[in-house]
Amino acid sequence: MTRNIAFLLSIILAFSAIAVRAAEKTVTISTKDIQLVYKVDKGNKLRQCYFGESINDNAQHVQVTKHDAYPTFGTSYVNEPALRAVHADGNTSTELVYVSHKTEQTGDGIEHTEIELRDSYFPFDVTLCFNAYYKENVIEAWTVIKHSEKKPVMLYNYASSHLFFQEKKYFLTQFYGEWADEMHMTEMQLTRGIKSLESKLGVRSNQHAHACFFLGLDAPAQEDAGRVVGGTLAWPGSFNLTFDVDNLDNLHVICGINSFAGQYQLAKGEVFETPKMLYSYSSNGTGDVTRNFHRWAKKYGIWRGDRTRTTLLNNWEATYFNFNEEILSKIIGDAADMGFELFLLDDGWFGEKYPRNNDDAGLGDWMVNRKKLPNGIGYLVEEATRNGIKFGIWLEPEMVNPRSELYEKHPDWVITQPNREIDLSRNQLILDLCNPKVQDYVFSVVDNTLKENPGIAYVKWDCNRFVTNSGSFFLSADKQSHLWIEYVRGLYSVFERVRANHPEVSIMLCSGGGGRIDYASLRYFDEFWISDNTDAYNRIFIQWGTTQFFPAMALASHVSTSPNHQTGRITPLKFRFDVAMSAKLGMDVQPMNMTPEEKEFSKNAIKEYYTFREIVQHGDLYRLLSPYTNPRTAMMYVSEDQNDAVVFTYLLEKVINGGNNQVLYLKGLDPNKTYRLNELNKEPNKWSWFNNLEGKSFTGEYLMKYGIRFPMYNQFESKIIRLTAE
Ligand code: DGJ
User: Fold this and answer.
1) In the chain, at which end, N or C, are there fewer CB atoms within 10 A of the end residue's CB?
2) Distance CA 321, CA 373 (A)
3) Strand order from edge to edge, sheet including 153-158
4) pLDDT tier, 22 (very low <50, low <70, confident <90, very high otherwise)
């Protein structure tokens, strides 16, 4: 009897195992509105089946495509594989078959999926990993590779992810730039063949290109309509986003580390994990995709994304390297008087034997320059405290000038090739973070500065050059190509240690402006400096591009002097404030050079910023008029409860007839609520066309359908309009 029951049970178990296995052959990665679906075909190959808006009944997916989920060189029908490996016996092909998959909840609203694939012959494993953020509609995709072959396997291509699309047309928006000219946007229709967005710079990788894209499916991407995919790679090193329209007009999107000159020798048992590729999708245009990324970033992507960011005055453009204790003390007093919450001391405070009085000496010697600051940093921290504000400090811990004590002591700590002239950029070299001793040193620079000067509340972490002569004295000759990856691993390890010891300090990610901005670094950073170009006119474009993927709460935007130091452009102080206040407000001006009227205006502007910064920093961004297509540009932020909103509008050029009269159709409001309109940061005693609307109330429906209508006449005229639900 007992034997019969046991037999029956084993049959039931066997059948249910088969049922589970069969049911498991569709893998669905879903968020609230997006689905990524894979299916296993009869040959046990994993195929991508669908990526787009969620379909209620997923079981209907029976039409398996021929497109490998993760195409491999040698066996997949693609131009560009996601993976190319040379196996221990010299075999250059890889053929992946499905083994198993599992899905689990790893956090509130986060579902983690792993799909295990294995080579059909070699003990070579590839796991496709995904985190699906339910509410935020963001999917992270990455890959883990390992093997137990007898000898190392050489990885030549190792993408984080591959996505496949089957549409008639594809429109790619890319983000590119240069120093002081970051985050331009341009859209193009993809034609047959490969278009790559890439960086091979290794460090300061975003100097010329940003690892972000929008993809309009079938039509150019629109702000509030149409199917759009957004993607960005969380990786501060070299990257490659490849868009390959194949011979049948299918599109393959392959994203990950740029493996150029970066083949990786994977030892038996070693686990190779690629960076995470972040995707979002909307059937309602780029605006939605942006808001998805912003909401995700504030919760998961940036350090303490729930906290309100402080305002600050930075002395870089105020003094450059020419300051002393007296000058700084005066600036600290003025900053406090104007209402700033923090003073940030920039470059030039250090170096003994080689004082840092310009950019050709001292980097690496992080001891205070007593000639400039006889009482040390501690005195300035106290000075700030006495004035009721906080103190921050500039560091560039990854770099060294040859004219430094550090370089004299450790010439083998830099990235360079032996038997080549050292190649300087901004007179400096990069410290080789592949070397654990260098990691310890870089960590100690930050750690000691903070420990020795208690009270420092903020660090600006700069990084001013990219890699040339890519040699490491630490890596063995056969592993020189690992430098691109080992550097970043070393960097992460330093970031981790700094954060473990200093969770409360705010840290700004800066790289000669926006040369390093990515969601892997931002996990450790509160905010970023997107450009050394502080010209408010240029900033409108730079910030427009940046906020497509990164939230304004973390985007430091500073009012600077006029004529602007980078462009020579003359703009009104109000315009400069109105632009800076649309993100995280700061200032780069020597207050001593300001007139009493300018100081008074600044004081009021800063005070006013505090009344609405919560909306800018924690609200949702809606773009109204693009600076690329309109002489007048506008955007707005709406609080989560839709009770508060703030609209920013700027006139970029004078248009004689009509062009400056564009309607601002507001977005994101509750149609049933009534909002009162008030202009903020007004110029004293100046009549404005907005006066007709001042203090008036309208329903959200009216404001979204009829909009706000008032003309603007002069170039660089600007308005900030506050909406308050009654
Ligand atoms: C580059 C940064 O982007 C600037 O803001 C400033 O900190 C300089 N470095 C200082 O050298």
Assistant:
1) N
2) 12
3) 83-86, 153-158, 264-266
4) very low
Print the domain residue range for 664: 622-725
Pocket test for ligand 1, best of 357, 529, 587 (most atoms within 8 A of CB): 529
279, 301, 323: which is the final residue of a domain?
Answer: 301
**How high is the pLDDT of residue 60?**
78
Q: Rounded to the nearest whole angstrom, what is the distance from the C-alpha of residue 362 to the centroid of ligand 1?
A: 15
Q: Is residue 555 part of a domain?
A: no
Q: Has residue 113 got a pLDDT over 50?
A: yes
Which residue's C-alpha comes closest to atom 6 of ligand 1? 316
- Give the neighbor-by-neighbor strand order of the sheet with 239-245: 161-165, 251-257, 239-245, 193-199
Instruction: Summarize pLDDT for 688-723 with one digit per residue, the tens.
Output: 889 999 999 999 999 999 999 999 989 999 999 999
Q: Is 462 a catalytic residue?
A: yes
68, 462, 578, 644: the catalytic one is 462
* Single pTM value for the model: 0.96
Confidence at residue 659, expressed as pLDDT on a 0 to 100 scale = 57
Identify whether 636 is part of a domain.
yes
| 578 Cβ closer than 6 Å to some ligand 1 atom | no
Give domain status of residue 585, yes or no: no
CATH of the domain at 101: 2.70.98.60
Those residues with Cβ within 8 angstroms of residue 195's Cβ, 6 or more apart along the chain or in another chain: 172, 188, 242, 243
Give the domain CATH number at 679: 2.60.40.1180
Whether ligand 1 lies within 6 angstroms of the CB of 318 is answered as no
Residue 19's pLDDT is: 37
Residue 352 lies in a domain: no
Between the CA of 513 and the centroid of ligand 1 the distance, in Å, is: 7
- Residue with the two structure tokens 């690992």: 482
Helical spans, DSSP H, in 160-211: none
